[in-house]
Amino acid sequence: MVERRLLLVGICIALAAMTLLPLRYQRYQIATGSMAPTLLGEHRRCACSRCGSPVVVGSAAPDCFKAHCPNCGHSDLPLAQAPDQPGDVVSVDRWAYSLASPKRWDVVLFQRGEESWVKRIAGLPGETVEIRDGDVWIDGVRSRKSFGELPSMQQELFDDAYSPHGIDASRRWERDPRGELVGGRPMLDGRDGSQTWIYARFLFDERQYRPFVDEYAYEGSSRADAEPVHDFIADLDLTVLHADGNLRVALTDGSDVIEASISLTNAGSLKVRTRPDSFEGKEAPALKLSTVRMTPWRGGETRRVTVAFVDRRFHIACDGQPIGDAIDLPDAASREPVVRPLRLTIERGCVRVDRFRLSRDVHYRPQGMAGQAVRLGSGEYFVLGDHSPVAEDSRTWLDPAIRRRDLLGRVLDLKRPRSFGAPN
Ligand SMILES: [Zn+2]
Rounded to two decimals, what is the model's pTM? Predict the structure, then answer.
């Protein structure tokens, strides 16, 4: 008897789930590239014929076939032979905001006029929103992301798993006093004295060093008005071959250098220093020093170290887990274009780089609202596309606000770069 009742309850639950789930989750197909590369509209994809890196270009881009590989700069890509692919299909949780309020950086589906749109929330009810220096400012303060918020907005710049063939790629790594690249990757060897490696953006075809800019392969040809970007994330898979001394990992945003000094001995401590100059110039003494403990690093052990200097905030993580608190820097008067974002210094020990990936945060352009602030009323949201140079969004609309009643749900299953945080 009890078993029959349990069976009946089970059947009722299954029937309720089958009836309700389609009501809760809606499939939605992305039509345009305004959220690229996070979400793709109709597009073509190919593997770069020089380095093998995947390249994705919007089919509607006016210069679709003039795209460059973002990884190696190659322009002769087999895009013409690639078929048009439909836009991404995403799941939308229509009940997401029944109980909880929308959060900053949520990607939402909403109604505007006759159409449905997908954008990212940047401003919340009652806030004053500005776009300055590539970032979103809320009530006069730069909005800073948590470590967990970085992946969904991360834009990949370089992955050394895709090595261009037929080219000497060693000019990307500047070494002092010397150093060996093994399979195109640095062997950091400080056993005969310290060694410094600096990663630079070197364009093979132009034979020039150039700053990182807000380019999107998705647009096809490069933009003449590309803006320098400042917020970088580096992922390094590191194997300790000789556990002695320190490894220092530094990032610059064009104004300051933040350097994490990782002890490779059993003490296992991590010190983070802040310096007020880019490492392309002369460095000033450390301004700030914070020390946290990390688990000791054994010889032969491989770990993924992630450092991020985004929104004037520094994060360091080991195997996807943040170590210590994020470090915030005050606003800089100005930030120079960055050619060399990452520096590695080894003292006494020996560490092999097994993989290196560099990415950046979304660089927001002010577009129509340069020098202006938008004040949101109660129940109003400010939304932005991730593909900032071309997206139509709250920056360009006459009425910038989206009302809460027009939000149709939260977009799930966003693309996450494979590289970020967690080990393979
Ligand atoms: Zn390439």
Answer: 0.90
